[in-house]
Design goal:
The protein has about 625 residues and is α+β, with helices and mostly antiparallel strands. The protein is about 55% helix and about 10% strand. Its main location: membrane.
Length: about 625
Amino acid sequence: MIESVVASSATSMQMWVVLALVAGSLVLYGLERISLELTSMALIATLLLFFEFFPLLDADGHNMMGADTIMSGFANPALLTVLSLLVVGQGMVLTGGVSYIAGLITEHGGKNASVAIFIGLFVVMLMSAFLNNTPVVVIFIPIIQALAERIERSPSALMIPLSYAAILGGMTTLIGSSTNLLVSSSLIELGMPGLEFFEFTAIGSVLAISGFIYVLFVAPRLLPALASMRSKLTNPDSSGKQFIAQITVGPASQMIGTRPVAGFFKNLPNITIQMIVRREHAELPPFESDMEIQAGDVLVVAATRKALTEALQKDPGLLHADAAAVNSDGEETPQKATQLLAEVMLPPGSRLIGFNLEQIGFRYQYKCLVLGIQRRSRMIRTQMTEIRLEAGDVLLVQGRSEDVEALRTIRDVVLLEWSTRTLPRPFHARRAATIFLGVIALAATGVVPIVVSSFIGAGLMIASGALNLRQASRAIDRKIVLLVAAALALGNALQLTGGAEFVADQLLTATRGAPAPVILSMFFLIVAAFTNVLSNNACAVLFTPIGIGMAQQLGVPPHIFAIAVVMAANCSFASPVGYQTNLLVMGPGHYRFVDFLKAGTPLIIVLWIVFSLFAPWYYDIPF
């Protein structure tokens, strides 16, 4: 008897310590005075030490919170899935495989940011009702990023809304989320019929539409333009400076046969053609409507590096043979290696000053192709290869990664380190798209678990050459790894020490004696709060039996409370660890923990109010 009391006291002490750690970690994550990674490591270390000296013993005397349990988060299938999908998505980005889809969305949305965002996010929400929303978000992360660039919006204003749209779509059908299936399975285990496919589609759609309006119009205003500010400082494509470039129209170019409309060529948007050289004759603007582009024409243009990159990526035939790389023997070779785009500046003492590119033999001497020349406050109307270089000129160059890196050692040019960027590799786009679609198809159809398909897909992306090991490793965010591992360790501690059940019981006890609609409303709010601390699947398993018991005491159909669990457990908006899709967008959006709190907490309140008003009326629950 005494041993039992001591054990109970120890368990109670462990529970209170874990609850204190949960509260402390939420404060530290929210303030971010200490880096998120360091907070996560400190939390794991504290749990390891505490349960080493105060073990949580089972009936056989085994420590249920040993190091194997606490550290299991590092090998969690959900974490491996997220990391693998990040690598697969990176492969799609580097091959330019998403530009076509982004172009379609932009084409239908035009320059109206609200329309373009609406189309993209609505498609995400619709697809998530019938597909696993994790791969749906993986598909649309690079698309929304490209869309943000096209409409000049910060990606950080769209990444969290993307995740939220996917979660909202998952509320509407039985297969929209694994949480929904778990609630249905829990009902069956309790001896009741499971949920039907469209049983909660009506109420789920009302919540999803209400949340979608918030996501579309309110959430972006609550999110700081983090990526936008960072890109202005570190992303050369965001600058508006113009380069003078010389484009040779190759025999396979889409420009052949095109004519100007009102003096402009629609195939070259955001690019100003200053001169067209045909054999020995030069045509100057304004161009006549009967002027037709022919193979071999040389276009002298003024454009930003972003516009040039997009034009050459869309129409590789523009550059003809000039785009070939040069090997160590001076011979041209196809560009199958990883290509970098960078800017180099000519310092005052450079030996290149006073010479043009042909005299220097820049492409053969430095193994890099000059795409453009930028000269401050000077409008040059001559062929790029005839421009004599001056001190302060900036050259936009393209070359293999090793050749661009070698420019650091050249004293005649200064490589602007911040300007270096990997170019898309369109010759691998088809194989990357095939791997990507295969991963999604296998996961969506359930042929293999998503962790299997995504892990294999990541390996195939590397093996096929769509990206190399260094690029794959850059796609993995250490912040996500440590955050997930710490959150899962805390979740295990809450469940095994009884902390989660204790708090739930205390909160539910406070609502006893209130009308059924009030209890249903409070129950929804409690589950919604817990799903941002525990995983949504853990909340589904924990609260479904509690909800059924409450329904039986109130004389209300049990399925109503089960559906409340479905809706509330999907409200994983206020924490990056609440759901996999939140983790996926954390890196691309450059978010902090507090950004999810700012954008997600009001959304939970909106859905709680809508549910509290709609559910009693829809299910005819009397006060």
